Amino acid sequence: VRYADGKGWYDARVEARAPIPMDPASAVLHYAQEIFEGLKAYRTADGGVTMFRPDANAARFRASAQRLAMAPVPPRLFLDALDALIKVDREWVPTDAEGSLYLRPFQYASEVFLGVKPSSEYLFVVIASPVGNYFKGGVQPVSVWVSREYTRAAPGGTGAAKCGGNYAASLVAQAEAMEHGCDQVVFLDAAQQRYVEELGGMNVFFVFDDGSIATPPLTGTILPGITRESVMRLAADRGYKVREELYSYDQWRADAESGRLREAFACGTAAVITPIGTVRDHDGEFTVGDGKAGEVTMGLREQLVTIQRGTAPDPYGWVHRVL
Ligand code: PMP
């Protein structure tokens, strides 16, 4: 779908995948005005197709557009585009119990000019690809690397928006994590280098011995994850006391060592809920609990996965039926 100031959104169409011709002076190539979303479509037992909370992705997409001074895609258009793509051929959505169709809506500045100002033209595109389970052979706890040198988002910056630039800035830290044998990077806050914010592509939760669960608050420098919000609802309804609170890395280590912290997990669209086993930085490492997948983590994971796949009831109205 195209956009031009004065004209609005126009020229919506579904086409076979092909390269998009781009002028070398297209604004996105120079000033990185680009945002995206990620969500999944699932096959139901009766052969239908559902998506998990696409309205939440539509709302976040719009908020990201506003932060990047882009023309927002109306939520109705966003949802219609996803539906239209899936309806071309439902066979694109895998039928096996582990698979899903990953959907990637994105929007970028397509106006041809050099100069620092918001573009007056945009392209909104959705691409899709079938994916398998994030974990091959059962859920495995991940190891994380705490980045002390790099932060992901500064106060007043774009941390709460899902824009490509945030990920560009995080890659060097993710590469560092992998060099140290870890799966994911953990970012601390930029102002004080003290509080845990999120992982490279997931939000983070902590489970304590008193039955409470905590996650960092949405201070504007972390992504408001849709899985994060869903987990908060599920956890509260399962009787856990859920807090959004600043939690320092020093406290994380101390609580893990004293046993007050029982479990930690990361969550996001790709891996749903992932136990965190080992935490490493330049000075050493510690394990959370016994380093294995914890009971609370796996209970929440099971409930969320079964709601998403339509094998458990959905009292929250999260599942959107496409076909
Ligand atoms: N934080 C970051 C930086 C992410 O890239 C993602 C993945 N979109 C998340 C958190 C989790 O968000 P969601 O649950 O909406 O996938």
Automatic annotation (TrEMBL):
CDD domains from the UniProt entry: BCAT_beta_family
Q: What class of enzyme is it?
A: transferase
Q: According to its UniProt record, what is one Pfam family this protein matches? A: Aminotran_4
Q: Its pathway?
A: Amino-acid biosynthesis; L-isoleucine biosynthesis; L-isoleucine from 2-oxobutanoate: step 4/4; Amino-acid biosynthesis; L-valine biosynthesis; L-valine from pyruvate: step 4/4; Amino-acid biosynthesis; L-leucine biosynthesis; L-leucine from 3-methyl-2-oxobutanoate: step 4/4
Cofactor(s) for this UniProt protein: pyridoxal 5'-phosphate
Instruction: Spell out the family assignment given in the record's similarity comment.
Output: Belongs to the class-IV pyridoxal-phosphate-dependent aminotransferase family.
The identity of this protein, by name, is Branched-chain-amino-acid aminotransferase
